[in-house]
């Protein structure tokens, strides 16, 4: 029996070239610390074309120098508080200063970046039908009243404090993501990132790991902010990037905590840095800043179950990798 149906005619749009089309990925904030490591990973896949949009507030072209001029890479100086008209398949929306000294420097700009910036990226996602991932933060849990924090916890956040531009900003960003999802059917992903460290962190950004490592290398006292018993959980940046990509590629909207559950007091962290980098250095207690969360540790059950993800790099192994990068940038070689 011969089918009476005519053979399918290949449409020009369905040519091999069309089907092998690259995945075009926008990374906002891609010149920053986590963003540039994410770009490195995405660029490893030859099917990916990566576009970075960044205003260089806390990021730098230097973080992307190995990709500038690459045919699958494009860098745009752009502020996400302004509309952006491009064609993409996926958006990793990271643009936002992450370190307290930078986000408190211009709090109005920080909240605009979180609210108007996220609105614009959602408008873009809606127009082109792209999937969008927001890097939210553990700060949405504020000074948490439950420990460890799982995603169902609504948080304990001061709406009028000096950190509010950041943590309330991210909370609104999450709300916008879900409203666009429910109202317009946008495919969304929300990662709640816990403290992340690694090479390319700004040396003087005031965050604890970068401070302690720079201080130890410069043989300056390690400044533990009182009381020193407050805790954090630190995730190495390659683990973070792996988690973000799994979340983007998977089927779950989140929010999903991505972080390392290993919990340390700031005094323990100072002792560890001292032991690994400079046993001669002094540890001193200094005044803290307002609204400093007393404890923070992710419950990563969801990430394990839904993404098959958990961090691999222990703090003791990650710190020396960061030390190498800081020594190169500070031009202080290791003593033998
Ligand atoms: P980062 O400051 O190194 O990177 C942020 C990038 O965004 C920078 O390149 C900066 O220039 C850019 N940017 C800021 N405002 C912008 C604007 N209006 N328009 C365009 N670009 C803008 O910070 P990071 O540590 O890489 O953080 C990346 C993301 O992860 C942020 O959204 C942050 O809130 C989130 N996050 C980070 C941590 C962490 O521990 N590093 C923890 C929780 C959440
Ligand atoms: N937007 C953008 N790029 C686009 C589409 C929209 O930056 O490709 C911005 C747009 O300027 C607006 C925001 O995203 O400020 C929200 O867009 P949406 O279409 O959802 O809302 P509206 O324009 O109707 O307010
Ligand atoms: N911290 C510290 N010494 C420093 C910088 C920070 O002891 O030089 C403490 C700070 O009080 C906080 C913790 O380290 O309890 C983490 O601070 P960071 O600013 O790195 O991140 P976040 O507060 O956003 O978690």
UniProtKB/TrEMBL annotation:
Organism: Citrullus colocynthis
Cofactor: NAD(+)
InterPro entries the UniProt entry points to: NAD(P)-bd_dom, NAD(P)-bd_dom_sf, UXS-like
Keywords attached to this entry: Decarboxylase, Lyase, NAD
Any Pfam family hit: GDP_Man_Dehyd
Task performed by this protein: Catalyzes the NAD-dependent decarboxylation of UDP-glucuronic acid to UDP-xylose. Necessary for the biosynthesis of the core tetrasaccharide in glycosaminoglycan biosynthesis.
Keyword Membrane: no
EC number per UniProt: 4.1.1.35
Record-annotated NAD(P)-binding domain positions: 26-320
Protein name (record): UDP-glucuronate decarboxylase
Pathway(s) it belongs to: Nucleotide-sugar biosynthesis; UDP-alpha-D-xylose biosynthesis; UDP-alpha-D-xylose from UDP-alpha-D-glucuronate: step 1/1
Higher taxonomy: Eukaryota, Viridiplantae, Streptophyta, Embryophyta, Tracheophyta
Signal sequence range: none
Family statement drawn from the similarity comment of this UniProt entry: Belongs to the NAD(P)-dependent epimerase/dehydratase family. UDP-glucuronic acid decarboxylase subfamily.
């Amino acid at each position: 029996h011969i089918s009476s149906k005519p053979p399918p005619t290949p449409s020009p749009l369905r040519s091999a070239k069309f089907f092998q089309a690259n995945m075009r990925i926008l990374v906002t904030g891609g010149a920053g610390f986590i963003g540039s490591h994410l770009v490195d990973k995405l660029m490893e896949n030859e099917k990916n074309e990566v576009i970075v949009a960044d205003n260089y507030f806390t990021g730098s072209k230097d973080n992307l120098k190995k990709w500038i001029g690459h045919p699958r890479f494009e860098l745009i100086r752009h502020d996400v508080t302004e509309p952006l008209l491009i064609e993409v398949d996926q958006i990793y929306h990271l643009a936002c200063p992450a370190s307290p000294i930078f986000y408190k420097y211009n709090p109005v700009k920080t909240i605009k970046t979180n609210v108007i910036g996220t609105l614009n990226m959602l408008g873009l996602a809606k127009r082109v039908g792209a999937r969008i991932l927001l890097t939210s933060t553990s700060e949405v849990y504020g000074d948490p009243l439950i420990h460890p924090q799982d995603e169902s916890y609504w948080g304990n956040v001061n709406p009028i404090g000096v950190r509010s531009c950041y943590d309330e900003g991210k909370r609104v960003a999450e709300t916008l993501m879900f409203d666009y999802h429910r109202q317009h059917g946008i495919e969304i992903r929300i990662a709640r990132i816990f403290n992340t460290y690694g090479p390319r962190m700004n040396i003087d950004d005031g965050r604890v790991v970068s401070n302690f490592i720079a201080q130890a290398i410069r043989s300056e006292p390690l400044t533990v902010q009182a009381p020193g018993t407050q805790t954090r959980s630190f995730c190495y940046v390659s683990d973070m990037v792996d988690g973000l990509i799994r979340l983007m590629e998977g089927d779950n909207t989140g929010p999903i905590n991505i972080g390392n559950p290993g919990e340390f007091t700031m005094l323990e962290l100072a002792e560890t840095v001292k032991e690994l980098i400079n046993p001669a250095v002094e540890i001193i207690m200094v005044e803290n800043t307002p609204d400093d969360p007393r404890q923070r540790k992710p419950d990563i059950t969801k990430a394990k179950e839904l993404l098959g993800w958990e961090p691999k790099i222990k703090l003791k192994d990650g710190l020396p990798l960061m030390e190498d990068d800081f020594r190169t940038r500070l031009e202080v070689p290791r003593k033998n």
